[in-house]
Amino acid sequence: MKNSCGAILYAYNSEGKLGIILGEEDRGAGDWLPFKGCNEDGESYQEAASREVREETCGLINIPPDKISLEHNFASKRKFYRIALCEVDYSFINDFYKART
C-alpha cells in the first residue's frame, strides 16, 4: 500500500476567525484536500510532508520536517494517509491566492 503524507494548514484572522487552507486536487474539479503526496525513496514521512507542502504552496510555506507531527491517519483501498495540522500566518491565504492566479 502506498503512503501519502502532508498537512492541512490553518490560520486565524485578527478577529479570531479560523481559516482552513486546502489544495485543489484538479483545478476546477472542486475536490479540496490536504497538501499531500507520496514519499520518495529514502525520504521519511515527515520529510515527504514538508516537501509536499512546500511544493504545493508555490514555495510559500516551508515547515521543517521535525515540526510536522503526522498524528492524523486514515486509509483508502490504495493509500495510507499521514496528515498533520499546521498553523500558518493568516497572510498566507492572500499570498497563496496571488501565487496560484
Enumerate how many helices there are, as a single number.
2
The residue fraction in helices comes out at 10-25%
Structural class: alpha+beta
* Amino- and carboxy-terminal Cα gap: 35 Å
Mean pLDDT: 89
Number of strands: 7
Net shape = globular
- List low-confidence stretches: none
- The succession of helices and strands, N to C, reads EEEEEHEEH
Rg, alpha carbons: 13 Å
The profile of the biggest β sheet is: 5 strands, mixed
Q: What portion of the residues fall into strands of 2 or more residues?
A: 35-45%
Task: Give an overview of the whole structure.
With 101 residues, the protein is of the alpha+beta class. 22% of the residues lie in helices and 36% in strands. It has two helices and seven strands; from the N terminus they run βββββαββα. It has helices spanning 45-56, 91-100, and strands at residues 2-12, 18-21, 23-24, 32-33, 35-38, 72-75, 79-87. Strands 1, 2, 5, 6 and 7 form a five-stranded mixed β-sheet that branches. It has a two-stranded antiparallel sheet with strand order 3-4. The longest helix has 12 residues, at 45-56. The mean pLDDT is 89.
